[in-house]
Structure formats: C-alpha cells, structure tokens
Amino acid sequence: MVQRLPSARPRLLFWRRLPLGALLLLLLTLRQHGGLLLADTYAILTRPFWPGTAQSEWLKRASTLEDYQRLVYLERENQRLKRLLNIRSSSPNLVTTPVIGRSPAIWWQQMILGSGGLDGVAKGDAVLGPGGLVGRVDSLTPTTARVRLVTDPGSRIGVWIPRIQRHGLLTGVGTNRPLVRFFNQDPGVVPGDLVVTSPASTLVPSGLPVGVVQGIPDQQPVAEAIVQLSAPIDAMEWAKVMVDQPGQG
C-alpha cells in the first residue's frame, strides 16, 4: 500500500477563500510592525551587554573629573588675574608695562615693552617678571623699550648664592636655562640653591630673585650650574621696570 503525502491543496484553498481586503490588511500590518519586531528581538539579545553599574560609575567619575579640571582651570585664571592686579598696584618706582613684541627667531634674547622714555624708563633699568629678574632695558624710544633678557648669550649679570655665600656670573646661552659660572673651581653649590642678584653688582639692584640651581654639568673646565629661572620668560604678558635706580653701570 502506497502512503500518500499530505496535499498542499487545503492551504491554497485557505488563501483563496481569504478576502482580498483582509489579505492586504495582513500584509500592511507585517510591513509596518516588522521593524519593531526586529528591534525588540535585538534589544532582548543584547540586553546582557547593556551598561551596568560599573559603566554608570565610570560615567560619573568622568563627569566629576571634567568638573574638577574646569575648576582647576578657573582657579589658575583667578590666580593669574590676581598677579596682574598686584603688578598694577606695585611700588611707585616700578613701571608696569605690557609685553608687546616677541620674535620666534630671537625668543630667548629680547622682548619689546609698551613703555619708554615718556614713562620714565631708562637704558639699563632692571626688568622684572612674575617671580624675578628677566633682563635689562637695552634701548628705548619715547613709548617702547627693548629688553635684553638674561637668557641672551650676550647677557652677563652678577649673582649670589646665599647658602654658600658665593659670587657667580649669570650667563645666557640662548635657551630657557642660563648658567651660573663661578669664580671658584669647587664652590659647593647643589641643586635647589637659591640664586639672587649679587650685592656687588653695579648693573642691577642686589637681592632680586633670579631662580634656583637645577643641575650641575659634569666635567666642565669651569665650575657651572644650570639655573631654573623664577620668572616664566616664555609666557610673560606683563613686566615691571625698576626706574630711578641708584648706582647703575
């Protein structure tokens, strides 16, 4: 006896008997909601990979860090503005002036200030930045002054190391780290020693802060020390010129 397979005819009869309007409605429903069904299926399958408690904590920490960095930036800006206000309320023998000119080719040699002879500035006047000495007025016009920086290779200024009571000569080398050359072969200087202008100097007032010893070069024929300047010469916006200085040379 041969077993007959089920015929597909009843199913064809079902689709033929289904009203045409109902068939169109069914197809339209599948078209509109098929995307939603796929989205629901995707959401169910990927739910184990959704951000959990750890990811939420990471986001909170990132937000907190961003707020902290913004606070630090605002605090720095506040301190910078305070320094500018302090400059403007300085002693009457200090002329406050903006830095109006810098050239990349001679960045460590000179800068141009927005005050000159009409403001009482004279050639040889010491120029200070926030933190210490940066140079001396080299030439001027009625309204501007050119400053030779202590980092200029031609700059020579007498300095003093208070801890060991030794004299030296601050010498520019064309970078942001000038050298102190000592008159003694073994002066006993160490990193961290304070460097100020010499009490024997005839070029600038004594006791002006210059910087600190950063390092000691090895095997030099002359005892030297590398100096980290107190004033940020590379980022100065304002300066103070010490006018009416006695005993300038």
Automatic annotation (TrEMBL):
Residues 99-241 form the Rod shape-determining protein MreC beta-barrel core domain. GO terms for biological process: regulation of cell shape. GO terms for cellular component: plasma membrane. InterPro entries: Cell/Rod_1 (IPR042177), Cell/Rod_MreC_2 (IPR042175), MreC (IPR007221), MreC_beta-barrel_core (IPR055342). The keyword Ion transport does not apply. Keywords: Cell shape. Pfam families: MreC. It comes from the Bacteria. Belongs to the MreC family. This is Cell shape-determining protein MreC. It comes from Aphanocapsa feldmannii 277cV.
